[in-house]
Structure formats: structure tokens, C-alpha cells
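Batch job 17 of 40 flagged for manual review because the log was empty.
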Amino acid sequence: MSDRTGETANASRAGTARIRELLGVAIPPALVALAIILLWYGITFFVLEPDRRFLLPPPHGVIQEGILDGEVLGEIMGGLYRTAMVAGLGLVIGFALGFSMALVMSQAKWIERSLYPWAVVCQTVPILALVPLLGFWFGFGLMSRVTVCVIIALFPIVINSLTGLQGADPRLHDLLTLHNAGRWTRALKLQVPAARPLIFTGLRTSAGLSVIGAIVGDFFFGRGQPGLGILLDRYSRRLRSEELLAAVIAACLLGVVAFWIFGVIGRRAVGHWDPSWADERNKDT
């Protein structure tokens, strides 16, 4: 009986600790969200004149016109789906290109000196000026939108993967040298595993950037089935502020979800041995 009572007490303490942990994670952002909503209401009703409140409609207006309206919600959800598909495809291609470039550059300095400047160009290119050219070259459909995502998402993958691949323990390099390991054996057995934390850091950053790329491409190409970019342009032209803010919120949530997904994958993949990716429970222990 005492053993059963002890197990029940331990289970109760574990449940209480879990609830406290969840509250500790949820309450701070919830308080910030509440402060933002209160500030939003304050600006709408105490700063803006009544005839100018269309510039920033109150939160309940956005919910009523942009979420509870079935037709508008259907438009936004359809645009969200198409934007997510373009962003996901661009991220996959960007990761394949970026990681391949980093892996090749990590094998020889002359290759790094040859390719690294072009990776920097992808980061510094004025994408808004390049968008019309992409439309002329590839048309105004899916390929151009995906290309914009790839260009925007490429650099964080390259730089983080390259830093991780080059940061493997020199002592382990020496050990593989003693065993006469080849270049690609060294890369696959040592460099790639050591680079995984930074690879996931690059992926998490690029996931959000690919969403931005999909919206930018959709906004400027403006053809075909509407994604979030086309909807944002359409609502702004028609001065439909509630629908516009609802689409903006949907775009923000998509970026947050993409960032969160790769954060979860990264913690599961490397959090058990890499302190920078360990969750709060592992850090405390």
C-alpha cells in the first residue's frame, strides 16, 4: 500500500511539475500578446480619429471580417496553402543546393574561394529588382516563385553548414588520418555529424526566409492561383483593412510554424548531445 501511495505521490509531483513547465512556456508570450492587443485597441480608439480607423481596425473587427467570414477565410486558407507549398519546395531545393555547396567548399580552400563569393551574392542581391527578370526568364508561374525562395533561403544554409563542417574536432581529424580515411569518408563520418547543430540552425532560419520569398514572389508576379502575396495586394488596393490584417496574421503564423517545426526537429535530432539545442529541461539537468 505504501509503495502504491509513493508512486501516486511521485506521479502527482511529476504532473504538477509538467503543468508548471507548460505555464512557464505559455504565460510569457500570452502576456506579450495581451499587451499588443491592448495597445492595438488603444491606438484604434484613442489615437486615430473615427474617420481614420479603417487604417487600423480593432482586433474584433479583424476576427469578424477576416476570420469568421467564410468566403474571406476560404480565400486566405487557399492562399496560405499555395504559399506554404511554394515555400516548402523552395526550401527543399535551397537546402539541397546550399548543403551541397558547403560540403564541396569544405573539401578544399580553392573551391571555397571560388564559390563563397557567389553565395554572398545570393544574400546581397536586390531581390525586388531581380523579380521582374525572373518573370521574363522563367515566366510568372511556379518556377519563378520557387526561384525567389531559393535565392532568399540559400545563404543561411550555406554559411551555417560550412561553419559546422569546418568546425569538426581537429583531434578526430588526426584520428581518421591515422586510419588512412579518405576525403569523403572523413566528410560523412566526422564532418557531417559534427555540423548537424549548425545545419539545423541554417534550416530554421531559411524556413522563415522561404516563406518571405514565397510571399514576395507571389506579390510581384501577381498571376495564377492567388497565394498570400496576391491576396495582400488585392486587399490593400481595395482598402479592405480587416481582410488585409487577417492575411498578414496568416503569413506571420506560417513563418512561425515553419521556424517552430525545424526547431522541434533539431531538438529531437541533436538536442540530446548538443547544449545549444537542448530544451529547458535538459539544460536544467
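Reviewer: the log was empty due to a logging misconfiguration, but the result itself is present. DSSP finds eleven helices and no strands in the chain. Unflagging and moving on to job 18.
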